Amino acid sequence: MGRGEYYEVRLGKPYPLSNLRSEWFNWFLEEVDRYEPKQESVALWALGGAGFILKTATATIYIDPYVGGSVESEGVVLHRMIPIPFNASAVRRIDATVVTHEDLDHLNEDFIFPVSENTRCIFAGPSSVAELLESWKIPKNRIVSLDENEETEINGTRIIALPANDANPKTANTYLLDTRKVRVFHSGDSLFLDKFAEIGNRYDIDIAAISLGLNPPGAKWYLDPSEVLEIATDLKAKVLIPMHWDLWHTTLRDPHLVEQEAVKRKTHIRTVVLRIGDRFDFP
């Protein structure tokens, strides 16, 4: 159990919506909606920060989408450095939203409320996320609470909750999204954990999305390039996607440093750098 700073202040009291609009209008969502992944393949779009859209032939799943603006956290002002890629009020084709933990840039009111009103999306997350959603009057039958090693299935994709090492939220998960042909690991904001080696031995992981960032003085929020590669190695991932490096001015980090680290260590892991809006298809 972590500090849960954003749990206590938002339980039954969601933050007001910022009502920021995307400068990209609807072209990005239209691209996602039109695109048809090949059978037995997945398409991943980067939303900036830890956000992704995962799409298969049968499911569209959003992971940690953040469409809010700049915020203040632990006395540090975090200025958003990337555009908002879409208007949450325009989202229609979505089967599930997977949330790793309740921090502001992972569980985002600006996304949750319009999507809950306009779609039949299922929301999956650890117990603190589920409790917050219920306190915000999201229908109980659309909330799935997942503790470590629990799972649910959305249109053929298994969503498996795995352990996390994150001291900030009350509860947190990492996840494996398993289409039975492709397996994608998402780290949330987790730091290094010995159990990642066990996960790598248990599952044949194709893609690992792992948070990279520069830490503010006196804080340890994100991983450095060496730690990102170390986790991907323990997971035995074939492809490594550094994430979260682009969202905040204070924590900006060059993702190509991870590529350089991989070359230096002579690892066989393929590093893929995605900018906001980029798509990656696998295999």
What does this protein structure show overall?
The protein has one domain: 4-Layer Sandwich (Metallo-beta-lactamase, Chain A), CATH 3.60.15. It has helices at residues 5-8, 27-34, 109-118, 127-135, 195-202, 225-235, 256-265, and strands spanning 42-48, 51-55, 60-63, 71-73, 76-78, 96-98, 122-125, 143-145, 151-154, 157-162, 174-178, 183-186, 207-211, 239-243, 270-271, 279-282. It has a seven-stranded mixed sheet, with helices on one face. Helix 5 (195-202) crosses helix 6 (225-235) and helix 6 crosses helix 7 (256-265). It is of the alpha/beta class and 283 residues long. Helices cover 21% and strands 24% of the residues.
